[in-house]
Predict the structure of S-adenosyl-L-methionine-dependent methyltransferase.
Amino acid sequence: MPRTDNDSWDITESVGATALGVAAARAAETESENPIINDPFARVFVDAAGPGMWTVMANPALAAQLADSEPDARARMQVMVDFMAVRTVFFDEFFLNAADAGVRQVVILAAGLDSRAWRLPWPAGTTVYELDQPKVLEFKSTTMQQRGARPAASLVSIPVDLRQDWPKALQQKGFDPTKPTAWSAEGLLRYLPASAQDVLFERIHALSAQGSWVAANAPGKDFLNPERVARQREQMNRLRTAAARMLKTEVPNLEELWYPEERTDVADWLTDHGWDASVTTLEEMLARYRRGVSDENLIPPTVLVSAHRSSG
């Protein structure tokens, strides 16, 4: 179902289902032979949600079955796992570096099934604010409570749509804009209209004291190339059709959830507003961790941006 201005979702619906797909990829990486991440909660979320497309990603037997019926499936699922693995490493390192620099206030925008509040070694006195749709945060909170998991930092959950006045909701929950903050926008920007992306960073900037940090992954150059888009759409449609047939259920079309629009370059915007920004491509991250890709067309054009506000 295409997006609308005021749409909302449960964890198994629309954008919520993408969070389960990401968790499934983290579970697959964690349980692989040579993992570069360790997320013990990813499998917990996937199992708690029940069957769906995410089940295939996290279940080797189902993944093999899908690959038998759709030859491209194995390569595409492995790319998804590798992508999420190196992206997870990038944001893990970002938060740990910010903590080492003395930041004790963390904001995870569109937190989804991010488990960093539970699994990262946060220094004493750290507060982690998680913002997302109410039903998504409710699912995560309930699942973690049933697991008996305790956050490693002071956790504040803020059920709010990021298209609404989330800065007000954040400050009402104790956020202090005079203190340095580490912000993350992981797996978020493509699900926002281009204009909403600009507003998001304007709000982050307005709430960021000197010494703050921010990280995001963003569409890279050529992400709107018509030939690339057509190839990816054709590959995804074949995979989605095969998965729906195997699971005997509807599989959402992820492309209907994205906003394929020209966007402001995140690193340029941050630099223009006084942040010291750096950019790493997805290809560079994959190469750093020796993750090869058999078909370059499978890699979504992606950049990973991190920045530090030392002045301004």
